[in-house]
């Protein structure tokens, strides 16, 4: 069996695409006869949707807690387990390692090595480091077409260039200043969280000060999203705990809405919230008025500022184009810029490089580094990957333990 790698850039290939192109991919013919399984974000979303509608998911079976409460990595592992239990003749793995911690990636590589003796593996991947060691042929896809098929040795000998200029320029200045922002923006003091009696966070102490650049890290299920939801979201677990935001205890001073005005936030799932026909320029301006999409006529000043952000991102040619039609990387850059356009005191970027290829990830990293270096905004960057070139000053790591994760500054 010759296992296949499919190296794609910033878009998804789906079952339809594969069917249309199967004859062009050597070794893929077996798809027609055997039993297949597909691991992808899209498939996972269908299971999550089923769980929402029926309060039950085949992925985990009856009597267990809802799939929706699983962490991102836990959901992906549950899907893979479910698919492998069906003993497929071939399995398509699309961006399998996104959202997974380093140890899980290593464990999965070993497990898949075993499975590759019985089943054909077709790995769709965007990051070079993800290539499974038993893949023998690599198919390159550019502009949705197969541009080349080569032996894996040729792929690894001629790595895809990561050194191209990143094409992101200096960031525009702040449109105004936020008043009465204390030096310590965020303070978690002995914060403990349990879900259904299961300890998740144990005595977390963490301080983020003005202008600092942090990476937040920790294995799947260690509690990163839980911490972020206590800061940015309205997770009720924050109330009663010592979570201080901009000087006031969460739940006692400002409303969640007021707090959100001071925090720029980006997570890949945000991209799906925007279904209106706003242009790239309008999307940037919406960050100045704290709305999802733009509903009012922008002022000249707002237009000038948004245009200078387009220049920073090298996306001036996209000004009038509909945001939702743009390539994934460009949507992400625009949404990060939207979150940053006001120069909020705190910017949270939650796994912003998920599902991107190497070159695109470098652009996100460059933009993040520039934001941290050229503004007074404090940045919290969440990622499982060691992102090449990312330059945080500090890292806060969650280390799971029986009584809940402990935190430490690295
Ligand atoms: N509403 C909930 N009910 C029960 N358990 C929950 C709930 N929300 C989260 N959990 C559990 O709490 C733990 C921490 O979840 P969280 O999403 O914060 O982890 P994470 O560090 O962000 O993980 P990942 O890297 O996989 O995204 C997980 O084991 C998760 O299953």
TrEMBL record:
GO MF assignments: ATP binding
SMART domains on file: AAA
Highest taxon listed in the record's lineage: Bacteria
ABC transporter domain boundaries: 186-406
Record keywords, A-Z: ATP-binding, Nucleotide-binding, Transport
PANTHER family noted in UniProt: ABC TRANSPORTER ATP-BINDING PROTEIN MODF (PTHR43553:SF3), HEAVY METAL TRANSPORTER (PTHR43553)
Descriptive protein name: ATP-binding cassette domain-containing protein
Organism of provenance: Autumnicola tepida
């Amino acid at each position: 069996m010759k296992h296949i790698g499919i190296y794609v850039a910033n878009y998804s290939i789906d079952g339809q695409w594969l069917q249309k192109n199967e004859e062009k991919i050597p070794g893929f013919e077996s798809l027609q006869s055997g039993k297949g399984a597909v691991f992808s974000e899209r498939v996972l979303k269908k299971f999550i949707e089923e769980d929402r509608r029926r309060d039950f998911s085949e992925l985990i079976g009856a009597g267990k807690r809802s799939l929706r409460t699983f962490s991102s990595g836990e959901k992906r592992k549950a899907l893979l387990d479910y698919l492998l239990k069906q003993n497929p003749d071939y399995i398509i793995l699309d961006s399998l390692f996104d959202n997974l911690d380093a140890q899980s990636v290593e464990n999965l590589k070993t497990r898949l090595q075993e499975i590759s003796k019985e089943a054909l593996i077709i790995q769709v991947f965007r990051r070079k480091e993800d290539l499974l060691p038993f893949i023998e042929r690599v198919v390159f896809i550019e502009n949705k077409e197969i541009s080349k098929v080569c032996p894996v040795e040729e792929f690894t000998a001629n790595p895809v260039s990561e050194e191209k200029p990143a094409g992101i320029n200096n960031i525009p200045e702040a449109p105004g200043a936020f008043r009465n922002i204390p030096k310590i923006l965020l303070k978690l003091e002995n914060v403990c969280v349990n879900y259904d009696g299961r300890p998740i966070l144990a005595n977390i102490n963490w301080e983020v000060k003005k202008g600092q650049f942090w990476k937040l890290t920790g294995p799947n299920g260690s509690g990163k999203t839980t911490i972020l939801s206590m800061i940015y979201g309205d997770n009720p677990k924050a109330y009663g705990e010592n979570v201080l935001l901009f000087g006031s205890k969460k739940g006692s001073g400002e409303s969640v809405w007021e707090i959100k005005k001071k925090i720029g936030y980006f997570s890949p799932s945000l991209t799906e919230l925007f279904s209106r026909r706003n242009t790239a320029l309008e999307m940037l301006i919406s960050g100045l008025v704290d709305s999802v999409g733009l509903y009012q006529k922008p002022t000249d000043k707002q237009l000038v500022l948004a245009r200078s952000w387009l220049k920073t991102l090298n996306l001036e040619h996209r000004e009038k184009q509909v945001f939702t039609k743009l390539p994934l990387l460009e949507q992400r850059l625009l949404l990060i810029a939207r979150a940053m356009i006001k120069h909020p005191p705190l910017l949270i970027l939650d796994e912003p490089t998920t599902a991107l290829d190497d070159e695109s990830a470098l652009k996100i990293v460059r933009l993040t580094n520039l934001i941290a270096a050229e503004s007074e905004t404090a940045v919290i960057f969440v990622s499982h990957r060691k992102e090449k070139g990312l330059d945080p000053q500090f890292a806060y790591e969650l280390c799971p333990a029986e009584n809940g994760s402990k935190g430490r500054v690295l």
